[in-house]
Design brief:
heterodimer; A: 528 residues; alpha/beta; 7-stranded mixed sheet; 18 helices; 36% helix; globular; B: 401 residues; alpha+beta; 6-stranded mixed sheet; 6-stranded antiparallel beta barrel; 9 helices
Chain lengths: 528, 401
């Protein structure tokens, strides 16, 4: 048997790679095990239709921690983040809201719906910025456990101080964001329906909630935590698609000496009583490690790789009740030309930004209702963009790849199975797009449909939830993914978690991976 | 591409430099002429004409208009008679400045506010319980600033029915010209004799043409924002987001200012009763932390600085710099006491002048301070004197005939 690794990371998604890179950078011998032929997990770019490179699952970058870009020198390892400055939200009744790079154009565009809202928009962004600023530290550190009597009291006090430093108006707003629905929260700021509807989408992305569901405001806040070059709420396209982010992380990890094995699925953990000592691959190969870190979903990390009989009962109960049911599908289109928007005849400027379809509060609510009862939405909210406008290398010259994030698509269908419904689901998306983009079928030369079932099958996200588990208060901070895991540890010695199901949560942030690595290194230092 | 103002068709062919800036999203020329000083000196020697349509304009109408104004603004509007114009700041509840602007009393129950930034929601929210209507008329009304020593004579050629000889500083009147009716306020941002003319957007072209027909013999020139930015500093007039930051846009509290700190203490009337921010301002009344001051660096000091590297002072023709620079105590220990936010070499005054915000104990008129200046890539402390504002205040600004 070969020499044990200091650390084995299960899963080569962006968080696994981040964790690996940090551990290797600290001098540890590190092995990353990825079941697929390529690294990235949900952060991959793949040539699905010849010549067309799809950002298969995730498609935008916003929450990627600037610390990671700097510390791992991701730019040197190939990361290039391209701007996208505009957002076009299109309502089913023909109205639209266009937010552009120029402040005053956006002001006027909003003012065409409501002058008050045009002014409120600046105030709203500033106050969300204040909150994002205050929560920066929360993102970058392990959260305290809710151990009021014990060792976490100083950390809890520290967190409380951060929040009280906000001052009364912002603290009140923070509490509203933790508890309210996105729609109710936004209605306090804006009077125009389309402005409310456009901003509310940040409160539902990837979550099985409608903007009217209490708790959706928290998802809204989460999406405001993105920061780039000192600007909060900055969204970027990655050159090469999001897969390039994973590639840069993998390159950084390798540069620090980490080993990455693809097509190496892990079957179970090697254990000596309650202590984890390595992993067994599905091939039967055994690999020893002083530390094992899983970036998989809680169900995979514990119920599959460990087995419930080897875990404390209350812990198993929490993992079994972990809510990670998917709510969205991802449809990628190969286009042989530029989409022509009925609302924007003769214009191209909006094509370089993001655009969303079926933007209306009523529309979301109907779409959500259908999904609640086990059907995909007939008129889904579609968040979309031509990634190849930012990076023309992703498609042949003059052609485009269009990414469509489609809500809602429930994991459990009432009738039929996803493999049976997949084709119809994809066609329904194109039908919906056609109402806004009359030429879509004429330029459509290929498509790929990912339902929640496909997301689970292909990249192992249990339930197909893009965040490895819903972003709701009971599943966040010290309870992500279960009470007692706040320091990224688990009930088993030497076994850690570092994926999106750990604090602070999902999206391409790398924060769980980085925080976990720092915790592991701190623990090792303490021990040595 | 920013939006055209109602004067765009007239202006565009005249902008030789093709230098435009976005002013609240409107296309505004920075300079018309490659010889920048021509339009600057038009303001001081003949007359310059500037499109001010991008200002936001609000009509406040109804029986409670005066009560509304007394609630929103820091000045006492019971003293603002019909036909009068008040310049006033307005604050939030913490006394921090949101904006400053002019309020014209067009009638007992009709006020018109002009402001650099949108404030409909703020005004509307503060109308609770009052019988007033707030209307945004920004696009409906076009504005021109006719400023300079010859402004009165030019305007008299064009306008009928207005007694311009007797129209006092910060007063308003109405008249008519070939293209329609015009509201005339004796106001401006130049610190000189001047008027602002307000017409229906549809009459904009006729007003522009009329003014040039009448004004050309008097040397009237179109002027851009570059020239305006020079004369307004000479006039000691602050610019929002440059010399102070609106409380609505400040990211941290330290960026906010109250009117007692921006040279507007005279415009805060504590005796009139409640207004938004009064409580907070009362607490600052005796000891405001900062003061807006003027700084002057004389020619000999400039010669000394550039002479040290064997150059003549190289500062003419740069216009106003909005890059804030530090101001230090003059004792040579490098203790920073504030910052100069707008500064330029005044071609008229032949001095380097700056609007600066200094800590109150260090802001006494006549005191010497050090203003950071850059000479050949290196920074030096320039000897500057604190002077009362404005730097330039000609008698004609307020005079009536």
């Amino acid at each position: 048997m070969s020499k044990p690794y200091d650390a084995i990371i299960i899963g080569g998604g962006h968080n696994g790679l981040t964790c690996a890179a940090y551990l290797a950078r600290a001098g540890q011998t590190v092995l990353v095990l990825e079941k697929r032929p390529l690294v990235g997990g949900a952060t991959v770019t793949e040539e699905i239709v010849p010549g067309f490179h799809f950002t298969v699952f995730s498609y935008l970058v916003s929450l990627l921690r600037t610390e990671i870009i700097q510390e791992l020198e991701l730019v040197k390892h190939g990361l290039m983040l391209l701007p996208f400055e505009s957002t076009l939200d299109l309502a089913p009744d023909g109205r639209y809201l266009y937010r552009e790079a120029d402040h005053w154009k956006t002001y006027r565009n909003i003012a065409s719906h409501s002058r008050r809202d045009a002014e409120a928009y600046d105030d709203y962004k500033l106050s969300m910025r204040h909150l994002a600023h205050a929560l920066r530290q929360v993102m970058n550190a392990a959260p305290p456990n809710l151990d009021l009597a014990g060792a976490d009291r100083p950390a809890l006090a520290d967190m409380a101080r951060h929040l009280t430093d906000l001052g009364e108006p912002l603290l009140r707003q923070f509490i509203q964001l933790l508890t309210m629905s996105a729609a109710d929260f936004l209605a306090q700021w804006f009077e125009s329906e389309i402005v409310q509807a456009a901003l509310a989408t940040s409160g539902i992305i990837g979550s099985m909630v409608s903007p009217k569901t209490p708790g959706s405001a928290l998802v809204l806040l989460y999406h405001y935590l993105g920061e780039m070059d000192g600007e909060y709420r900055a969204w970027k396209f990655a050159k090469g698609g999001t897969g390039a982010v994973a590639d840069a992380l993998a390159s950084a990890a390798r540069a620090h000496g980490a080993e990455i094995r693809t097509e190496a699925p892990v079957a179970r953990l090697l254990r000596r009583q309650d202590e984890v000592t390595g992993v067994v691959l599905e091939s039967g190969e055994e690999l020893q490690a002083r530390t094992v870190v899983s970036s998989l979903t809680p169900q995979m990390s514990f119920l599959r790789l460990v087995g419930e009989e080897s875990l404390p009962a209350d812990f198993v109960a929490q993992i079994k009740h972990w809510n990670s049911l998917g709510s969205a599908g991802k449809v990628n289109l190969a286009l042989a030309g530029e989409p022509e928007f009925a609302a924007f005849k003769g214009r191209r400027d909006h094509l370089a930004g993001a655009f969303s379809f079926n933007v209306s509060l009523d529309s979301y609510e109907k779409a959500y209702d259908e999904a609640k009862f086990g059907a995909y939405s007939s008129a889904p909210y579609i968040d979309s963009g031509l990634i190849s406008m930012a990076d023309p290398d992703l498609a042949p010259p003059g052609s485009h790849v269009m990414t469509c994030f489609v809500m809602y698509a429930p994991y459990h269908l009432k009738e039929g199975t996803w493999p049976e419904k997949r084709e119809a689901f994809g066609q329904n998306v194109v039908d919906n797009l056609e109402r806004y983009i009359p030429n879509i079928r004429r330029i459509l030369v290929g498509m790929q449909v990912n339902t929640p079932w496909d997301i689970e099958e292909r990249i192992g996200l249990t339930g197909g939830n893009i965040f490895h588990g819903e972003l709701r208060l009971g599943q966040m901070f010290g309870r992500r993914p279960a009470a007692g895991t706040a320091g990224y540890g688990t009930p088993l010695a030497n076994y850690f978690v570092c994926g999106s199901s750990a604090h602070p949560g999902g999206a391409i942030s790398g924060a769980p991976g980085r925080n976990a690595a720092r915790q592991i290194l701190q623990r090792n230092n303490g021990r040595s | 591409m920013p939006y055209p103002t109602p004067f765009y068709e007239k202006i565009a062919p005249l902008v030789e430099t093709n230098e435009w800036r976005s002013w609240s999203g409107y296309k505004a020329p920075v300079y018309y002429d490659h010889a920048h000083e021509r339009e600057y000196f038009a303001f001081r020697s003949s007359a310059g004409l500037l499109d001010v349509s991008p200002l936001f304009k609000y009509d406040i109408t109804g029986p409670d208009a005066e009560r509304w104004a007394n609630r929103v603004f820091t000045r006492d509007f019971t003293r603002c008679r019909v036909g009068q114009v008040f310049y006033t700041p307005w604050c939030d509840e913490t006394g921090d400045m949101i904006h400053d602007g002019n309020v014209v009393r067009l009638a007992a129950d009709h006020l018109r506010v002009t402001a650099a930034d949108p404030c409909l929601a703020w005004f509307d929210d503060l109308a609770y319980g009052l019988d007033v209507t707030i209307e945004d008329v920004s696009e409906a009304i076009a504005g021109l600033a006719l400023q300079g020593p010859k402004a009165r004579q030019i305007l008299k050629q064009l306008v009928r029915g207005a007694d311009l000889d007797r129209l006092r500083y910060f007063r308003q009147t109405r008249g008519s010209f070939g293209g329609g009716d015009v509201i005339i306020t004796r106001t401006g941002y130049t610190g000189d004799l001047g008027y602002e003319l307000w017409v229906e957007a549809g009459a904009a072209g006729a007003l522009w043409d009329g003014l040039f027909t009448c004004g050309r013999p008097y040397g009237l020139l179109p002027a851009g924002l570059g020239a305006l930015d020079m004369v307004r500093v000479e006039a000691g007039l602050v610019l929002i987001e440059v010399d102070y930051i609106s409380a609505r846009h400040a990211v941290i509290d330290g960026q906010k200012s109250n009117p007692l700190e921006t040279g507007m203490a005279w415009a805060v009337d504590f005796d009139k009763g409640y207004f938004v921010g009064r409580e907070a301002l009362l607490a600052h009344r005796e000891n405001p932390e900062w003061q807006l001051v003027g700084l002057e660096v004389d020619w000999f000091e400039l010669e000394r600085l550039w002479g040290a590297v064997n150059l003549r002072p190289k500062i003419v023709g740069r216009g106003t710099s909005r890059e804030a620079v530090p101001v230090y105590r003059a004792d040579g220990r490098g203790v920073q006491i504030g910052q100069a936010t707008s500064h330029l070499f005044s071609p008229l005054l032949k001095k380097y002048i700056a609007l600066a915000t200094l800590k109150t104990p260090d802001a006494a008129a006549g005191a010497r301070v050090h203003l950071e200046m850059t000479v050949e890539y290196s920074r030096y402390p320039a000897e500057a004197t604190i002077v009362p504002l404005p730097f330039f205040n000609p008698e004609r600004k307020r005079a009536v005939l």
